[in-house]
Specification:
Number of strands: 2
Distance between the termini: 35 Å
C-alpha cells in the first residue's frame, strides 16, 4: 500500500513528463514491439496470406536449420560479413574521427566521410559497379591488365569466389558515415581540461591520451556506434542485391535478410519468413546485449 501510494504521488508530480513521453511510447509499442510479437506468433504457423493460417509449432525452425541449405549458406555469409564489416568499419570510423578531430579544417573532410551513409545503397552500388565491372572497361580490371597482372577480366560480380569480398569492400566504405559522425561529436565533447591535467600528471603521447582519457570518456558514443554497426552488418541486403543480383550466383552473396525477403515478398510464405526474422532478431539481440555489457559506462 505504501509503495502504491508513493508511486501514485510520483506519477502525479511528473505527469507532464509522462504526457510528453506518451507519443513516443505509443509509437514504439505500435511500430516496434507489436511487429516483433506478431512475427514471433506467425513463426509457429503455416501462413501464405491466401489460405487459412495453420499452427505448425516449431516445424518452421526445424526446416530452417535441418533442411534449408540456402538459409545455412545465408547464415554463414551474414556472419562472415558481420565479423569483418562490423569491427573494421567501427575501427576505421573511430580512427578517422580521431585524426580529423585534431585538424583545424575538419568540416569538409567530415562531409566526405558522412556522405556515403546518406546515399542509398543502390546508388553507391552503381558507382562501385564501375570499379568492379566484369569486363575490360572496369577500373580495377583495366588497371590489372595494363600492369600485366591478368590476361582476361576477372568476373568480380559473377564469380562466386569474388562476390562476397566485393560486397564486404563496398559495405565497409559505406558503413563509416554514421559511426564516424557520432565519434567525431563525442571527441569534440571531451573536456580539454582533462588533457591539460593529464599532461601535468605525466602523459605525453597521443596514444596515452587516447587510452587513459579519450576512450573512457567516450563510452556512450562507443556503445551507440557498436550497436549501430551490429544492426547494419546483420541487416545487409540492398548492397548485396545491387552488386550480385537476386539471387546471386550459387548464393554466394545471399544474406539472412535476402532469404527473409525471398520467402516474405516473393513466395508469400509469411510463417516461414517470420521464423527467419525471429532468428535474425535473436542473433542481433544477443550480440547487442554482449556489446552493451562490455561498453556500458559503469559507476566507479
Amino acid at each position: 500500500m505504501w509503495m502504491r501510494h508513493n508511486l501514485g504521488r510520483y506519477v502525479r508530480k511528473n505527469w507532464v513528463g509522462y504526457l510528453m513521453l506518451l507519443p513516443f511510447f505509443l509509437f514504439f509499442v505500435v511500430f516496434m514491439v507489436l511487429p516483433v510479437l506478431v512475427a514471433l506468433c506467425l513463426s509457429f504457423t503455416d501462413y501464405n496470406m491466401f489460405q487459412e493460417m495453420h499452427f505448425v509449432g516449431a516445424n518452421n525452425y526445424k526446416l530452417l536449420f535441418l533442411d534449408d541449405r540456402i538459409f545455412l549458406t545465408a547464415l554463414g555469409n551474414t556472419f562472415l560479413f558481420a565479423v569483418i564489416v562490423g569491427p573494421v568499419g567501427y575501427i576505421f570510423s573511430f580512427f578517422a574521427a580521431w585524426v580529423l578531430n585534431q585538424l583545424k579544417f575538419r568540416n569538409g573532410f567530415a562531409l566526405a566521410f558522412y556522405a556515403p551513409s546518406i546515399t542509398s545503397g543502390v546508388a553507391m552500388s552503381v558507382v562501385w559497379s564501375y570499379f568492379f565491372s566484369s569486363d575490360s572497361y572496369g577500373l580495377i580490371n583495366n588497371l590489372l591488365m595494363e600492369a600485366g597482372l591478368i590476361d582476361t577480366p576477372i568476373l568480380w560480380t559473377q564469380d562466386p569466389s569474388y562476390i562476397l569480398p566485393v560486397i564486404i569492400v563496398v559495405s565497409i566504405w559505406m558503413s563509416m558515415g554514421t559511426g564516424f559522425l557520432v565519434f567525431l561529436a563525442g571527441l569534440q565533447n571531451v573536456d580539454k581540461g582533462y588533457y591539460e591535467a593529464a599532461a601535468i600528471d605525466g602523459i605525453q603521447s597521443k596514444y596515452q591520451e587516447l587510452k587513459w582519457i579519450t576512450l573512457p570518456m567516450m563510452k556512450p558514443q562507443l556503445l551507440f556506434g557498436a550497436i549501430t554497426a551490429i544492426t547494419n552488418a546483420f541487416g545487409v541486403f540492398d548492397v548485396a542485391v545491387s552488386i550480385a543480383g537476386f539471387p546471386s550466383p550459387n548464393y554466394a552473396g545471399h544474406t539472412i535478410v535476402a532469404h527473409l525477403y525471398d520467402y516474405a515478398f516473393v513466395r508469400f510464405q509469411m510463417g516461414y519468413a517470420s521464423a527467419v526474422a525471429t532468428v535474425l532478431f535473436l542473433i542481433t539481440f544477443v550480440i547487442g546485449r554482449i556489446v552493451m555489457r562490455a561498453l556500458s559506462p559503469k559507476d566507479e
